[in-house]
Amino acid sequence: MERPNLQNLPRRSEHNKDAETIRNCFDTRFGPDGKLLFCDFDQIEMRLLAHFSQDAGLIKAFHSENDFFVELARAIFIDPDLQKSDPRRSVTKNVGYAQVYGAGIQKMAQTAGVPVDQVRVVKQRFDSLYAGVHRFQQAVERVAWQRQRDEGVPYARSIVTGRRHVADSNKIYALVNYLIQGTAAEVFKKALLKLDSAGLGAYMVVPVHDEIMLDVPRDAYDDTVVALRDNMNDSTSFAVPITASVASGYRWGAKEDV
């Protein structure tokens, strides 16, 4: 196969064993003397939503020692003992990401695999507890409409590069998504440049969404892990820390957290 679409390989899950077989077709070029390394951002869209909205509840949840979505679910369902394995976390996660992607109630329910009425209640609780998100969404649209009137083009401006994220006049609501996804992409690209400057360019194989894959010889493994953590994590630029997780394996389908 030539030029495979690495952005859309099937996801590894207990329901899709073939995904692991496909991903295991990719291994290190160094044989037993090398390893693949993977580094990807943790919930960067939700972290940027917390930053842009400046919602105190979201920011507090990210600064908690617990899983972010567990913290949200505990607040939404008023259950301080809720654990990560609880299916209510998944519903909360879907509702949270819907704020970024602009999904409606029907889509949220379909994605979460739960009744519409249940999602509607969770969405109402989310909006009540994290009202800063709605205010942020309204502000983005209000500024975009003003720019439409003044400049003839509705857009949101990147806080990282200053680039304009432009929307169609009938899809101004999508600018929240453009702004967050665009900022995430810019943060990722800047991190890749830092990795290259740190001497990892020769090992970098391919970026996939917000993950970078590297193929590293054994004698450079430890230093590369340190460099990934130094350059992919950012605790000062945003209202919440931007963090990244590192995994490794001799094959893509057999990677494990470092």
Q: How are the elements arranged and paired?
A:
Layout: H1 17-23, E1 34-41, H2 44-53, H3 56-63, H4 68-76, H5 87-101, H6 105-112, H7 116-129, H8 131-151, E2 155-157, E3 164-166, H9 175-200, E4 204-208, E5 211-217, H10 221-232, E6 244-249, E7 256-257
Antiparallel strand pairs: 1-5, 1-6, 2-3, 4-5, 6-7
Helix pairs in contact: 2-3, 2-8, 2-9, 3-4, 4-5, 5-6, 5-7, 6-7, 7-8, 9-10
Describe this structure in words.
33% of the residues are buried. The protein has a five-stranded antiparallel β-sheet with strand order 4-5-1-6-7, with helices on one face. The protein has a two-stranded antiparallel ribbon with strand order 2-3. The protein has helices spanning 17-23, 44-53, 56-63, 68-76, 87-101, 105-112, 116-129, 131-151, 175-200, 221-232; strands at 34-41, 155-157, 164-166, 204-208, 211-217, 244-249, 256-257. The radius of gyration is 20 Å and the shape is globular. The protein is 50% helix and 13% strand. It is an alpha+beta fold and 258 residues long. A hairpin with a 6-residue loop joins strand 6 and strand 7 (256-257). It is built from ten helices and seven strands. Helix 5 (87-101) runs antiparallel to helix 6 and helix 5 packs across helix 7 (116-129). Among the domains are: 12-42 and 183-257, Alpha-Beta Plaits (2-Layer Sandwich); 56-129, no CATH class. The chain starts with 16 loop residues before the first helix and ends with a strand.
